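Holo prediction — adenosine monophosphate.
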Amino acid sequence: MHYDLHSHSLASDGTLSPDELVQAAATAGVDVLALTDHDTVDGIAEAQASAALAGMRLVPGVEISVSWQSQTLHVLGLGIDPANALLGRGLGQLSAFRDWRAEEIGRRLARAGIPGAWDGACRLARGRIVSRTHFARFLVEQGHAGSMREVFRRYLVNNRPGYVSGDWAALDEVLAWIRAAGGMAVLAHPARYRMSASKLRRCTGEFRECGGAGMEVVSGSHTPDQVRSMATLCCNEGLLASCGSDYHGPENPWIRLGELPPLPAGCTPVWESEHWPMH
Ligand code: AMP
Ligand code: MN
Ligand code: MN
Ligand code: MN
């Protein structure tokens, strides 16, 4: 079975509709796909309907933004009930923060001499959640940088003119929402957080104590070296291992749906756990 347990659609900052995403995954030979949009479950119903037609399994998921020790973490909820009220209220708070943050990013960019960014990002987000990715696309469109990578580095990260620090949800709260919605919590792309090894161990330890079950060992954003070190951390922490491309659409050709190396031997995959919500 071919698993890809991390992907985005137009409901957040991906560029394919949920239907197009599911079709692309089926074409790429994915048997089990998780749709994990940032802080929203709005794409899931459409993805489930397309998956049923395509004969593919769709894991209803979400990638939730967390503030932990003055940095942002991403926690996946896999196999969640998208209609759960506690989860819905929590995601509502996060999307309210996103709306405020988007306006604030727009004000800061305007002060730095770039007018119209809030309007531009909202236009690209088409009424769905507004992410820094939408600002980045607008800035590239307006010629302020040559690539997404460059635009983030110059405008949208800490100490840059368009950066607003995250005020997301607390780790224990988010794990409670995921639990209430019947899902399994997985720490997304842990090697991406630029933490020291000891801080990352504290992070995974606290994550497990709060009820977190797994971590991404294989991720589209992990190098082969990082896959090996994350596999070791995963085993040492007694966490389950997950794998996901973090696909956002065909515009990022270096990340392909379902094209992932296997989980290293010794890791227990999330789907082999008795707690896997999709059994
Ligand atoms: P947000 O949740 O609104 O702060 O936006 C975070 C999203 O921005 C991530 O999920 C990525 O899709 C994207 N992102 C972050 N850093 C970069 C980068 N350096 N290059 C391209 N995309 C990035
Ligand atoms: Mn994203
Ligand atoms: Mn992420
Ligand atoms: Mn993601």
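READOUT: DSSP finds nine helices and seven strands in the chain.
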